[in-house]
Structures are given as structure tokens and as C-alpha cells.
Amino acid sequence: MKRRVVVTGVGLVTPLGTGVEKTWENLCAGKSGIDTITRFDTSDFAVKIAAEVKDFQAEDFFDKKSAKHMDLFAQYGVAAAVMALKDSGFEITEENCERVGVITGCGMGSLPMIEKYHQVFMEKGPRKISPFFIPMAIPNMPSGHISMRIGAKGPNLALTTACAAGTHAVGEAFNAVSSGKCLAIVAGGTESVICPTGIGGFTALKALSTRNDDPAASSRPFDKDRDGFVMAEGAGMLILEDYEHAIARGARIYAEMAGYGLSSDAYHITAPPEDGEGGARAMKMAIEDAGFQPEDIDYINAHGTSTPLNDRCETRAIKSVFGEHAYKLAISSTKSMLGHMLGATGGVEAVLTALSLDKQFVLPTINLQEPSPECDLDYTPNVGRSMKMRAAISNSFGFGGTNAVVAMKQYIGE
Fold first, then answer.
1. Any idea where the domains of the chain sit in the sequence?
2. Which of 63, 88, 304, 324 is the most buried (most CB within 10 A)?
């Protein structure tokens, strides 16, 4: 039998604020974290907008030496994990540390650091490459640093499944705790690739919005005038804990993690199939794993990237899974306000889904002025609303055709 798993701590670093409270308040107010890029000169770039984290202070979480030897994506991940662990009140001890793990997701590791040291190599030669370059750049450093920081000696994993990575991390953590192998897992995603190569590469794919004259209105999921996603950065981490252990210590519980689904499109390196079949299978799997019926789901935190392909195909996938119930669902894309954090997005959106169930509040999809004809569901346009929610799913779909979905339910006590 599967053990019950609950969310007992959450941590966020986003373009709308460092810390859960700040981000949540701004999302509820429908604010956008998207603005003109400040990290580098965009004069020669077709895309000049992104969602940068602007209030993060490394000294709040690290000493100067530690911060100097960690790239931003690792700093964000550690900070979100530290906040989540503090929020949970979970104490890691010598007795339980081998049953506490860390599973993180990211899409690309430290692309800015690779850029930097390639330039150093080209200008000054190999002897000027820092010995910290590799430890700063590789994708598993957030999970490694978190494990060392908190003393977790259980599983230490990093998943790099593109934009599904954060959700895969949360799902695999759920499996580890529900199987009884682990007592608790710190899980989520982190990313920071707002840099010339990152923006230039996604621009070359024609994946990014070019609405440079109106950044706040550039991410427009499900709108007829959507023209691409907006690059973002940040981190979202959760503490997934064995239910009985959480109850025994009197933990505050945000939501119950109930199911996990994953699949492959086996179709195309960057495009989903028109019917969204792979994503639909992942949704069905998560719902069945949770022991739910489709009609039990009241809310979907959609992948909702604001690209012409995703939003159309995801809508079709939702309809294929839910049938007529699809029109009774509340759906929202928080990427309309936060942008697309790539591998971090699933961690952030899992946090937001748990908070939505806890607070019984559906976050809005802003900039939805005129839905595309093929996007005709309730995407909670522009204004959030209080609503009774029993269960929810969070979708993440990535390049390479990789799909991940987690299912949660409202925790109402015993």
C-alpha cells in the first residue's frame, strides 16, 4: 500500500518576489514580473524582455565566499529549499537524515557560467579557467548544495528533463515517500539562463514573444494574440513528508500529494502532437494514480506557455481527458505573470497548486483579452477568484516530448 504524502513546507524565489508571501500576493493581484532585460545589452537582439528576479539578496542565505562559488541557479534553489524547510518545521537529525533526500530539476544548468568561461578561454587561454567553473556549472549542484546545507543523506538526484524537470522532481519525490523509502524529500526546480546564449537560442527557435514595447502584456496564454513565451528565472521547492510523521509532530499541512503521471510524445524534438496525446496520457496517469475520477478535479495549473502550439494542444489534451467536465474546470496559467522558468517552472507551479488548494483560491491568467477560437475553456481570465476546490493537477511539458503531471487534493484534516 502507498503511504500518504503531504506538503508541509514551501519556498519560492520568483520575478514577483523572494519568499512565498510576496509572490502569492502579487499573483493574486494579477501583477506581471516581466520587464526589459537588464542582465546584458540587448541592442542586437530581437527579444529584449524577460522575467528577472530583482529582489534576491544572496547575503540573506550565504556568506560571501559560498555565494561567490555558486551560480545563480544554485543560489535560487538552495534559498527556496531553506525557506521551505524552515516553513515546514521539519528537523533533520542523525536518526532520520538517511531517510531525507533532495530531488531537484533544471533544464540547462549554468549556461551563463559556460558563456563566461568560454570567453575567458578564448581571450586568456585554458590556465585562466577557474577550478570552480565545473562545480558551478553542472546541473546537479543545487541538489548537492541543498543536501550539504541541510544534512540530508538520502537520495540526492537532479533531473534535466527540460521544462518538465521541476514536476518530474516533485513526482519522483512523491514516489520515494509514498513507497516508504523516504521520510521526507525536498523537491522542486530551479533555473537561471537569462543570458545572451539563452535568449539568442530560444529566439532562433522562434519560441519567444517579441512584444518588447509592452513587457507586462507579452505573456498571453490562450489569447489569440499570443506570440511566444517569455524567459524567466527562479526556483520553487516543497517539503513532501510522510503523512503519519507530519501528523505526529503537529505539522501544518498545505495539501496532500496524491498522484503522478509521466509520458513521452515520441513525436518531435520541440513540438507537441496536435491532439496533445502525450500530455493527455500523463494527466490520465496522475489522476488514476491518485485514485481520482476526472470529475474529481476542480482546478488545473496549466503548462500554458503562451506559444501558439502549446496552448492549442494542451486545451485539446484537457478536453480529451475530461470530456464535458473540461468546461466546468477552473484553469490558469501563472506563466502569464511569472514567465516561463523552464526547468524551475514545475517546482514553482507545484507550490502554487498546493497554495491554491490550501487557500481555495484560483490564480488568474492575465492578458487574456480575446481567447483563441480553439481555446474555449475557463482559463480564469485576468482576475482570480475564491472557489471550492477538492483536487487539482499541475501540468508540465518539455522539449523532447517529455510530460509530467502531479495531482493533489485539499487537506481537510481527519
1. 5-410
2. 304
Q: Within 13 Å of residue 310, how many CA atoms lie on the same side as its CB?
A: 27
Dump pLDDT digits (tens) for 118-127.
999 999 999 9
Q: 80 and 188 in contact (C-beta within 8 Å)? A: yes
In whole angstroms, give the CA distance from residue 43 to residue 116.
19
pLDDT at 414 exceeding the cut of 90: no
Q: Which CATH class is domain 5-410?
A: alpha beta
CA–CA dist 332, 380 (Å, integer): 6
* 90/86 Cα distance (integer angstroms): 7
Sequence letter at residue 392: A
Q: Is the pLDDT of residue 288 over 90?
A: yes
Question: Which cell numbers in the block locate residue 358?
Answer: 490550501
Name the residue among 399, 196, 374 with its Cα closest to residue 303.
399
C-alpha cell read off for 413: 484534516
Written as one letter, the residue type at 5 is V
Distance, CA of 28 to CA of 362 (rounded, Å)? 8
Q: At what angle do helices 308-322 and 277-289 cross, to 10 degrees?
A: 40
Q: List, by residue number, the catalytic residues.
A: 163
- Write the CA distances from 367 to 26, 48, 210, 241, 395, integer angstroms: 15, 19, 15, 37, 20
Helices (H) and strands (E) in the chain, counts: 13, 15
**Phi, psi dihedrals of residue 74, rounded to the nearest 5°:** -75, -40
The residues near 26 (Cβ < 8 Å, ≥ 6 apart) are 16, 17, 33, 337
Consecutive H or E run containing 136: helix 133-137
CA nearest to 101, candidates 183, 24, 25:
183
pTM greater than 0.90 (yes/no): yes
* Stretch 31-35: mean pLDDT: 98
Q: What is the mean pLDDT of residues 318-336?
A: 98
Question: Residue 82 and residue 90: Cα distance in Å, rounded?
Answer: 11
Q: Which residue has the cell 546564449?
A: 197
Whether residue 1 is predicted with pLDDT greater than 90 in this model: the reply is no
Cβ atoms of 189 and 348 within 8 Å: the answer is: yes
pLDDT at 413: 78
Q: How many CB atoms sit inside 10 A of residue 375's CB?
A: 20
